[in-house]
TrEMBL record:
Lineage: Bacteria, Bacillati, Bacillota, Bacilli, Lactobacillales
Gene, per the UniProt record: lysP
GO CC terms, sorted: membrane
Transmembrane segments: 20-39, 45-62, 127-145, 157-183, 195-219, 240-262, 282-307, 339-359, 365-388, 409-431, 443-459
UniProt name for this protein: Lysine-specific permease
PANTHER family: AMINO ACID PERMEASE, GENERAL AMINO-ACID PERMEASE GAP1
Length: 485
């Protein structure tokens, strides 16, 4: 039977693709630009603590997702897991919430790509660059999953190489080998450093650090198209955790050592702040004249990579929901190359319409972007809940952990810590808006929470779903050989 008649995606992603997709998904403007604003607020020590704590939480999250993804490797994984291990209504809400987030993010990224290009071509209309970016990622996603994997592999590799060069240049600058004079660790004891504002400020930037790690959950989506998910997913989780911790922690250490936290050069937080990106500043201090152009090219790569991943993630989520009965059946059909064309088309149209509103209706666009703001953290809450229920059901039904191809350590501490920290981050997004009862700011910040609740409660009432009893939860592993047949 052909792939097309089965309406299945193809397992065309190699282990190197899965590892680099997971790694690249968490390295972007959050590290290259916004990390500077974290240091300026909490000091170098506070920034290191915030990123370490968030990195630990992401590790627990990844191991939770890894345990489920190796047992049942499917596209649109965590929405399917929420529906399978907790409540179908939760799966429905998580799936649509996540699809919407990435479809909107694609529009945001193609808009950002145009802004980044203006660095070199300031007089060209921005919409031309946005149209080229959208056409490019549409072609990559329409060809095959292998073309997506290769594109992400090489774009992620550019980011990784940039960080290695940055770390080498940074260390040489700290010791005075580049840049002309010895800096050492004097900026770690400058004025109120290393900890500025104490614990309250660490908690405040913890929220910013969380956004930097958004995208790591993509490894769960790729499990459905990995040629060997039971090897690729655990390896990706192991590699990515250590690399992320090393990249983020060492990069922030270097930035904190070279640039004092009081410097106005650390205030940038968006892709358009390339001229005051901490990476650009460090390269300039080392004597690299073309630093801004080089970093702008890297940031452009990051933005296109994010848009490309967003297109893939939202398409696969819509495809998965169609197979669960949460979306129209047409969204679950694939062509002979294993591409869910219907889901890809709908996602592209929504991204395009969102982009058009950014030009024609800025206020609507603002609310659309706001509505997708907390989606990543909401998805993480769903992953933690699903894993907690999966493992409890697995043991209750008499299974042994030895039966699992990969099992998360530190259960149940891992998912519980993830759950608590994610809820803290969601609640702490804009505490000041409640202090002043600024209803517009409260709405813009938290709108994604009531949207998810409406989806969840609406589906629950319509279909009369209930929390699935632990002894009724389907924890049986999927047989990849049956799937291939």
């Amino acid at each position: 039977m052909s792939e097309n008649s089965n309406n299945h995606v193809k397992r065309g992603l190699k282990t190197r693709h899965v590892s680099m997709i997971a790694l690249g998904g968490s390295i972007g403007t959050g590290l290259f630009v916004a990390s500077g604003s974290v240091i300026s607020q909490a000091g170098p020590g506070g920034a290191l603590v915030a990123y370490l704590l968030m990195g630990l939480m992401v590790y627990f999250l990844m191991t939770s997702l890894g345990e489920m993804a190796t047992n049942t490797p499917i596209s649109g994984s965590f929405a399917a897991y929420a529906g399978k291990y907790v409540d179908p209504a939760l799966g429905f809400a998580m799936g649509w919430n996540y699809w919407f987030n990435w479809a909107i993010t694609v529009a945001v990224d193609i808009s950002t790509a145009a802004l980044v290009m203006k660095f070199w071509l300031p007089h060209m209309p921005g919409w031309i660059f946005s149209a080229i970016t959208l056409a490019l990622i549409l072609c990559v996603n329409a060809l095959s999953v292998k073309s997506f994997g290769e594109t992400e592999f090489w774009m992620s590799l550019i980011k990784v190489i940039t960080i290695f060069i940055f770390l080498a240049v940074g260390v040489l600058t700290i010791f005075g080998i580049m840049g002309g004079h010895y800096i050492g660790l004097s900026n770690f004891t400058y004025k109120q450093a290393p900890f500025v504002g104490g614990i309250p400020m660490i908690l405040a930037v913890f929220v910013v650090a969380g956004f930097s790690f958004q995208g790591t959950e993509l490894v769960g989506i790729t499990a459905g198209e990995s040629d060997n998910p039971r090897e690729a997913v655990p390896r990706a989780i192991k590699d990515v955790f250590w690399r992320i911790i090393l990249f983020y922690i060492l990069a922030i250490f270097v930035i904190g050592a070279i640039i004092p936290y009081t410097s106005p050069d650390l205030l940038g937080s968006s892709a358009t702040d390339v001229a005051i990106s901490p990476f650009t500043i460090v390269f300039k201090r080392a004597g690299l004249a073309a630093a801004a152009s080089i970093m702008n090219a890297v940031i452009l790569t990051s933005v296109i990579s994010s848009a490309n991943s967003g297109m893939y993630a939202s398409t696969r989520m819509l495809y998965s929901m169609a197979h669960q009965g949460f979306a129209p059946k047409a969204m679950g059909k694939t062509n002979r190359r294993g591409i869910p064309v219907g889901a890809l088309t709908v996602t592209t149209v929504i991204a395009l319409l969102t982009f058009i509103t950014s030009i024609e209706g800025p206020q609507i666009y603002l609310w659309l972007v706001a509505a997708s703001g907390l989606t990543g953290f909401i998805a993480w809450v769903g992953i933690a809940l699903s894993h907690y229920r999966f493992r409890r059901a697995f043991i209750k039904q008499g299974h042994s952990l030895d039966e699992l191809k990969y099992h998360a350590t530190w259960f149940p501490i891992g998912p519980i810590i993830t759950l608590i920290l994610c809820i803290l981050v969601i609640c702490g997004q804009n505490v000041n808006s409640f202090a002043n009862w600024d209803w517009e700011q409260i709405g813009i910040t938290y709108i994604s929470v009531p949207l998810v609740l409406i989806l969840y409660i609406g589906y629950k009432i319509k279909h009369k779903t209930h929390l699935i009893p632990l002894d009724k939860v389907d924890v049986s592993p999927s047989d990849l050989r049956d799937e291939e047949k």
